[in-house]
Every structure is written in C-alpha cells, then in structure tokens.
Amino acid sequence: MAQGVCDTGVPKLVLEAAKQAMDEGLNTYTRYDGLVELRQALAQRMKAFNHMTVDPDTEVTVSAGATGAFHCACMALLEPGDEVILFEPYYGYHLSTIVAVEAVPKFVSLQTPDWCLSLDDLEQAVTDRTKAIVLNSPGNPSGKVFSVEELQAIANIARQHDLFIFTDEMYEYFVHDGCTHVSIASLPDMADRTITISGYSKTFSITGWRIGHAVAAPRWSSVIGAMNDLVYVCAPAPLQYGVAVGIQTLDAVFYQELQRSFQRKRDRFCQVLQELGLSPTIPQGAYYVLADVSRFPGTTGKERAMYLLEKTGVAGVPGEAFFQENKGASYIRFSFAKTDAVVDMACERLQKLKSKNGRQELR
Ligand SMILES: Cc1ncc(COP(=O)(O)O)c(C=O)c1O
Questions:
Q1: How far is the CA of 170 from the centre of ligand 1 (A)?
Q2: How far apart are CA 260 and CA 359, in angstroms?
Q3: Domains of the chain
Q4: pLDDT tens digit string along 9-41?
Q5: Rounded distance between C-alpha atoms, residue 169 and residue 167, angstroms
Q6: How far is CA 171 from the centre of its chain?
Q7: pTM
Q8: What confidence tens digit (pLDDT) does each residue in 269-311 have?
Q9: Are 5 and 287 in contact, with CB atoms under 8 Å apart?
Q10: Binding pocket residue ranges, ligand 1, CB within 6 Å
C-alpha cells in the first residue's frame, strides 16, 4: 500500500490503439509538443470537463508524464533564486523539481485535521521574490480537494502579486463524496498565469507509459515546449496515440465507474484505519490517505512504518517524504490504488493486529 502505482487494469481499447499504432508504423518522433490527435483530444476533453478553452496548436505540450511536464514548466519559467510557494504536505517531486531548477521552496502548512488552507499564512509567505504557487488538487498525499472558495482566494493572491500558478491536476477524475473538480485556470482571468499539468497515468493505469501534459498560454507554452524538445524530444509516439483514442472514446460511464470503485476502496480501507484509532482524515480525492501513527512505537515515520511492516506485512510511505523537519514523524501515507483483493488483504492484516493484540500494541 506504499507506492502510488495503480494495480487496476488498463482500458482495453487504449492498449489496442497503442498496439495498432505500432503495427501501422507510428514509431518515429512526433512534433515536439505532441501528436496532433492527442493535443486535439486533450483540448476537447478540457473544454467539456475542465471548462477551459485550449488551443491544441499553441497551448498544449505533451511530455514524459506529468513529471516531465512539470519539470519542463519549471525549467522554462523559473529563474534561480525565485521563490515558489508549496503547500505542505507536498508531493516530493514538486519539491525536488523546484530545488533542481535552483528556485527556493517556501512552505505553507495546511492545517490539521482536514488540511485547511490559512489565507493569512499564504499571504505572509509571499515576498517580492515570489514567482509562483504550486497547487495540487486533489492532493497527494493529503487527498485534499481545494474548495472553489479556496481556489478563488489563491487566484486573488496570484493576481494581486502577479504570480504563476503551477497546478498539478493528476487526480482530477478521482474526486469523491459528490465533490467537483475545479481547474483554477477556468476561474476569471486565470488562464494566462496558470500552467495546468495533468495526464492519464493514473486514470488509465499507465504510469509506465510516460505521457502527461502541460497547458498554458502560447507565450509560456512555446518555452515549455522548447524545454520538452531539449530534454525528451517527444513522448512515446504510439503510446500518445493510445491515450488519444482513450480520451476520444471512453465515455462518462468509464469515469463514473473509476470514481465509484476508488471511493469504495477508500471507504473500506479508511474504515479499518478508523477502527484502529489511526484517525485518518478521509480524503476527498486522489487515492492516498495519511494515517496518524503517533501511537506506534518509534520516533520517526520510518521507524513507525517499519514497525507496521514487520507486524502486519502492510507497507506505507513514512511521513517524512511529505513534510519538512520532523513534522512527518506522526504519519504514514497509504495508497489504496490496489485491486479489491489486495485492499481486502491489507484490511484483514491490519484488523488482525487489532484483534490479536488490542490497541495497547499500538502505543
Ligand atoms: C500529484 C502527482 N503528480 C504527478 C504524478 C506523476 O505523474 P506521471 O506518472 O504522469 O509523471 C504523481 C504520481 O504519483 C502524483 O502523485
């Protein structure tokens, strides 16, 4: 239950389309910013789902996963010394990428128990060196879905201080409890300053294909595309085609089923965490949960994760991966993007810990 790799199946027609593309000779470089079929499919899908008007010819860069897209965007738009605001808990690649381009991360802690945003904290973090805010909604590892009010408030701050927003919307289709995904670029006057990063690695369970995208206004997109050309040349051609066919063909039922099945997994797994007194904040999106393991023996998240692994065979990621200083010591992140059988097995193992040894075991 550690790494966020989906064990769930790849839609058959996505696989078939990629195979067919290979057989039919789509095996050479694509345009630096991606195959036209994929850029067009993304633009159509983003109009319908994200309420964004996207020009497939000038505003999309298909890259080596959302990771590649984010890295290219950071290389293109950040200068060494620029400050970039990151909400904590954060996704480790966001931090590493900011550091890799020699920008300076500035952390704004989301507040427990349900990872609320303090606007005062955000305002205070802005200086005259701030260049961008990184947003990740639904969030890894918190599962937080930023509310429209929070997004509007962040947008106001970005407008006021002339900041970029880098928004990673990788889990846009994994939104639970009737919440809606809102892309910050769809808010008034935000398209021009927002770099929207996403991809189908998780939605189609193709994390190894390395296809993702960045969407931005043409003047930013051309530089992001140039970085993509420099580093990757292009994303894998036949796999881009497979993703394009998936986006064009899979209908609302596919996305509803995906959401429902992940909400079921979440409910099953989080219920057991609650029974064990690990007080998880129930994630409204994505497929991760941060469990509070401060009652486990040990002083670090790693020691506590090792304790759990040794006792139950259930693995999680130590909280230190998502927080600064020792704030992560109380947390383990679990991913429930597993087959139902694996989620069941993890639940049974965790439950045995409770029934055999009682809660004292966990102190
Ligand atoms: C928030 C977030 N963004 C991006 C990625 C990686 O996406 P990709 O595989 O398309 O690079 C992940 C994977 O865990 C993620 O959690």
A1: 6
A2: 32
A3: 25-249 (3.40.640.10), 253-357 (3.90.1150.10)
A4: 899 999 999 999 999 999 999 999 999 999 999
A5: 6
A6: 5
A7: 0.96
A8: 999 999 999 988 899 999 999 999 999 999 999 999 999 999 9
A9: no
A10: 4, 65-67, 91, 136, 140, 168, 170, 199, 201, 207, 212
